[in-house]
Each structure stands twice: as C-alpha cells, then as structure tokens.
Amino acid sequence: MAVTRLLILCSLLLAWDAIDAAGAQNSKAILAPPVGNSLVLKSRTKNGRQIYRCSLGEWLPVGANADLVKASNPSIPVGAYSSLFFQGNSTISATWILSNPAGDAAESGYNSSSVSGKEIATAPSGGFISEALLQATSHQFNGVASLISYVQRLFPQGGNPPLQQTCVQDALILEVPFDAEFWFWQQDLTPPVTPSAMSIHTERVVQGLFGEGVVSYRYNGNSWQQMQAQATLYDLPGGTVTGKYFVQAPPVYGRAGSYWWQASNPNGFQVFGKDQCKPVPVDQNCLAWSLVSVTSYSSPDTSLGAYTHVQMVSTRGGLPPSHLNFVAVTGMLIRAPFSAVFWFYTKS
C-alpha cells in the first residue's frame, strides 16, 4: 500500500512538473514576435528605477526609467528606457532611445533614434514587473530604433512596490531599483518560409506591408462565422501609414475579388484577388496564412510588372474567442484584433 501511494505521489508530481513546464513554454510562446521578425539587439538595464506615488494610503505605479547597456557587455552603453503607467486602463507606454552607430549618425544627422511601444502580451515573472511583448507604435528620428518592430521585456527582477504602511503622505514619490533585459526585433526585408502550398518560386517579391486591424465574426447558433476583415497598412509596426486592406464578407475559396488592397505609399496601387489555395493554419492561436491570386490591379508604376500574388503571413490574433463570459446568441457580432504582413509579388 505504501509503495502504491508513493507511485501515485510520484506520478502526480511528474504531472504537475509537466503542467508547469507546458505553462512556461506557453508563456514564452506568447512573448515571441511573429515569424518574419529578426532579433537585432539584446540590452539590459543599468540604474533601473521603478517609480511609485503615494495616494490615499496606497502606492501606485507611475512609470520607470533606466540606462541601457549591451547584454553581453555591460560596459557598452546603448541607450535609455522610460515608461509611463496609466491608472485608468492599467496600460503602459514605453519608449527606448537607442544610440546610432557612427554610420547611421552621419547619414541621418542624429546621434540617437527612438521607438515607443504598447504591451500586446504579458507573462508572470514572479514579481511586480511582468515579462512582456511590446509592439512598436511610433518612431522618431532615423537610425537603428526607426526600424524596430517589436521589443521583448525579459527576466525582470526587483521593482516591487514599497510596503503599504510606508505610504503616509499623498504625492510622496519613491523609486525602487529593478533590472530587466530588453530584446529588440526588426521586421525582415524578405518573406518568411511558408508552407509548400503557399510557396512562390518563379516570381519577384516587390514589397511587404504590415497590417493591423480587426476580423468581424457573426454567431450562427453553433459557431462563429467570419464576415469581413479590415486593416490599416504600414511600412512596419508603428511606421508610416501606406494604405488599407479589406476582405469582403464572407471570403469564399475560389471566388474572384474577395480581397482588396489599396496602397498610396511607396508605390500607389489597388489590388483585387481571390484565394489560390485554402488558408493554411500555422499557429493554432492566430489567423491562418493565405496565398491570394491577383484577379485585377491598377498601378501607375508599370516598371514593377504585373501583380500576380499576395501572401498574408506572420499573423497574430484574429480568431474568435474559444471561451466567453456570457452566452452567445444567434446573430451576435464580435471583432477580433489581428495583425499580419502582406507580401506583394509581380512577374519576374
């Protein structure tokens, strides 16, 4: 009997370990930028300070600031970090200033450039500061930061709020030391490897545009049916607005004209198309990747050649909810945020 109980206990412990490991892997997975982005810089904080303000007997987070050094060599400074915490909606706006290499500084005329971002995913770290994935929302000045698409906040330590009993005077400010690493990513200049059904080998890729928007779904009584999708197009996350994307409701495999792109920058064009193959799921938590065959287009720049295909890849989000806090009724509409990168091809 004792041996049996021991075996059961060991089995439970192994199961718990497996669940913890799976949870850790899932946490890391949601913090990974979409495929099609490459890591360009690992930094860590120096003299990091998490800032709190006393208000009605409670310490409230205000923001943070820190110097940044190279993660592999702390003697090399690379920039600075600051953030603001907005109490009303519990969101964080973060900004990183990165020093431009000599070549970039000479070309751009600026010694540094900056990128600001918003949290799009978080994972518990065991302390007050969570690990997070942030998407770029804006850039300032040309240079290394002007091309950043995503930033990861990893391995945070410290920064926990002061003891509540020390909050005895409203507006009192306290700074608490913290450490973390920030990893910077850039959107690739070429498409990622795609499933074989979506591969294009005999045509020339012209450009890739980042799209961010929503997918609309209607509940038919049994499941959520996709109705339409629309997005704003940018040259990269947080970059310059270049156009719009729209999917007519509902997209039907093989039907002409389900998809529409309109771009005004850098090369103005309109493209209409239909699915060439059924969309291919790549990540169970994100929209399937798709290959669209161009049915018609207009472009003032004929030197690019005839548009032939558009790949939608590097998707994030865009799926209907798997669990709801309310009962869905027939006809109910919801909108799911999503992002993707669209790659445009022409004849070689």
Helical proportion? 10-25%
Integer tally of domains: 2
* Order of H and E elements: HEEEEHEEEEEEEEEEEE
Whole-Å distance between the termini? 74 Å
- Please list the strands of the largest sheet in the order they lie side by side: 1-2-3-4-5-6-7-8
Strand percentage, roughly? over 45%
Poorly predicted regions: 1-26
Architecture overview:
The chain has 348 residues and is mainly beta. It has two domains: 33-187, no CATH class; 198-347, no CATH class. 10% of the residues lie in helices and 53% in strands. It is built from two helices and 16 strands. It has helices spanning 2-30, 102-108, and strands at 37-55, 58-70, 73-86, 91-99, 112-123, 131-140, 148-158, 173-187, 203-219, 224-234, 241-247, 259-263, 269-275, 290-298, 307-317, 333-347. The strands form two sheets. It has an eight-stranded antiparallel β-barrel. Strands 9-10-11-12-13-14-15-16 form an eight-stranded antiparallel beta barrel. A hairpin with a 7-residue loop joins β6 and β7 (148-158). The protein is globular. The protein starts with a helix and ends with a strand. Residues 1-26 have low confidence and may be disordered.
